[in-house]
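Known limitations

Files may contain more than one protein. Parsers should not assume a single record per file. Below, a two-record file is shown to illustrate correct handling: read the sequence, read the token line, then continue until end of file.
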Amino acid sequence: MTSYAAQTTVDTGRSREEIERTLTRFRATQVAWMRDDETGRVIVAFKRDGKTYKFVLQMPTLTDRMIQYTPKQMILRTDAQRRDALEQERRRRFRSLANLLKATLDAIDTGIISEEAALLSNLILPNGSTVQEFLLPQIDRMLEAGEMPDLRHALTAGEDRR
């Protein structure tokens, strides 16, 4: 399987600039970038229509199997080849993020999908986590248990806030 933008020559800085232009074009009022060297993540967060969203891009490392070995023959790469493969994969991931954001925001503005449906998993909640980060562990527990939680209290609490 060929990865999207596997041979891209567009550097990460240019992709980041494109992402910022795309977010501005699609009415993002605030944009923030963060690089976390401990976890190897790059995060872009933006505000749109009063809601804040976060996209996390996991960066590859020199110790990742896909960087250490060639994809087809699984031959160990030299140090120089690993550095080249690492940079290529970083460029590829930034291109993928640029493509995702552009396509998603265009689909929202075109009316193909609602903002809520398209971006819900990336919505930042009051505790700082995204809907996805908050719900996935709970969904796993529900699937393991084979039952839904009792939502009567949650529904009553929601009515009190109105």
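...continuing to the second record:
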Amino acid sequence: MKAFLWKAAVLVLVVGAVAGCAAGRSFSKAEQAARAGDWDAAVTYYEQAVEANPDEATYRIALDRAKIAASRAHLEKAVALEAKDELEGASAA
């Protein structure tokens, strides 16, 4: 019985470490995308980080901020296209 519990504990630690690594990699990619101003990619990577580690508040806050920044970027693009009377492009932005 002790051997089973020991193996189960090791498995839990390994799974947790792998999930943490995946979350960290996604978060790092999201940060790079955010610095480059690629907010859509940043949102995607932050979502992956949150999915891998939903209890990490830093990831959830960063995701919220990236969503707001992406929304602003899309709105600015749509307004600029609308000013040029490119309504189809504006509605797709």
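Parsers that stop after the first record will miss the second one. For reference, the second record is described as follows. The helical segments are 2-35, 39-52, 57-83, 87-92.
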